[in-house]
């Protein structure tokens, strides 16, 4: 079975979705380790409860981004994972780290990329007056939130939506689509070819709407 390392910074609800999919027999992969840059991330408890090895690599213990990412790369490589899964890992990564894991690092982002890269995506979608919003799973490449998008979960924006209501609606889709995309990778169905995501041998001209 292919092995995964999952990186988190917070609640870890997407990690939980992967754990649940694994336990339901829907994710043919072994979660080798969960690494957090924050010692208090609740996701660490979720991992421990599932019997998964956890590590904390606190960014405050490092002089800068390069030093941190060099250490992080070593920690990940120690587990020799086939895939690195970013699940709410709230750090900008150096090009060196991203290139090292090119084609084997996925991220989930709470918007319909290329719309709303970066932070505060839900309030920005509301302010923009969009009628649709959602989440995207993409291969990680050096430009922030700009790697090839594999799949998206789409939700409507209702007239009376508040930020937390919309965030919750998107989060439900995240929990649905991330395990599906990780499963594709684990099954050998998904690759990165240059700057193009390839699913079942077909270059994806647009993201799969799941
Ligand atoms: C998720 O909504 C994820 O899309 C987002 O952080 C949240 C983590 O939640 N990621 C980013 O914004 C990445 N820039 P979780 O810890 O409960 O999985």
Automatic annotation (TrEMBL):
Instruction: Fetch the SUPFAM superfamilies from UniProt.
Output: Formyltransferase
Keywords for this protein: Purine biosynthesis, Transferase
The alphabetized list of GO BP terms reads: 'de novo' IMP biosynthetic process
- One Pfam family name is Formyl_trans_N
Residue numbers for the site described as Raises pKa of active site His? 145
The residues covered by the Formyl transferase N-terminal domain are 4-182
Statement: the UniProt record of this protein carries the keyword GTP-binding: no
- Active site annotation, chain numbering: 109 (proton donor)
CDD domains, from UniProt? FMT_core_GART (cd08645)
Q: Name one GO cellular component term.
A: cytosol
Q: Which InterPro entries match?
A: Formyl_transf_N, Formyl_transf_N_sf, GART
Quote one Gene Ontology molecular function term. Answer: phosphoribosylglycinamide formyltransferase activity
Q: Which reaction does it catalyse?
A: N(1)-(5-phospho-beta-D-ribosyl)glycinamide + (6R)-10-formyltetrahydrofolate = N(2)-formyl-N(1)-(5-phospho-beta-D-ribosyl)glycinamide + (6S)-5,6,7,8-tetrahydrofolate + H(+)
Pathway per its UniProt entry is: Purine metabolism; IMP biosynthesis via de novo pathway; N(2)-formyl-N(1)-(5-phospho-D-ribosyl)glycinamide from N(1)-(5-phospho-D-ribosyl)glycinamide (10-formyl THF route): step 1/1
**Which portions of this protein are annotated as coiled-coil regions?**
none
Annotated residues that bind (6R)-10-formyltetrahydrofolate are located at 65, 90-93, 107
NCBIfam families found in the cross-reference section: PurN (TIGR00639)
Q: Which HAMAP family match?
A: PurN
Q: Which family does it belong to?
A: Belongs to the GART family.
Q: What does this protein do?
A: Catalyzes the transfer of a formyl group from 10-formyltetrahydrofolate to 5-phospho-ribosyl-glycinamide (GAR), producing 5-phospho-ribosyl-N-formylglycinamide (FGAR) and tetrahydrofolate.
Q: Can you say what this protein is called?
A: Phosphoribosylglycinamide formyltransferase
């Amino acid at each position: 079975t292919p092995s995964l390392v999952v990186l988190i910074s917070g609640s870890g609800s997407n990690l939980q979705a992967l754990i649940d999919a694994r336990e339901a027999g829907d994710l043919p992969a072994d979660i080798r380790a969960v690494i957090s840059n924050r010692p208090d991330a609740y996701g660490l408890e979720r991992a421990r409860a599932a019997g998964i090895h956890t590590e904390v690599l606190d960014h405050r213990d490092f002089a800068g981004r390069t030093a941190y990412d060099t250490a992080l790369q070593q920690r990940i490589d120690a587990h020799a994972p086939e895939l690195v899964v970013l699940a709410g890992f709230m750090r900008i990564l150096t090009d060196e780290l991203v290139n090292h894991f090119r084609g084997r690092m996925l991220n989930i982002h709470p918007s319909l990329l290329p719309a709303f890269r970066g932070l505060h995506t839900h309030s920005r979608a509301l302010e923009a007056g969009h009628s649709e919003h959602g989440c995207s799973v993409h291969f990680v490449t050096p430009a922030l939130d700009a790697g090839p998008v594999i799949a998206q979960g789409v939700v409507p924006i209702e007239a009376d939506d508040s930020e937390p209501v919309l965030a919750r609606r998107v989060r439900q889709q995240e929990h649905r689509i991330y395990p599906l995309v990780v499963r594709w990778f684990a099954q050998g169905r998904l690759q990165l070819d240059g700057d193009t995501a390839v699913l079942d041998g077909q270059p994806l001209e647009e993201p799969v709407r799941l």
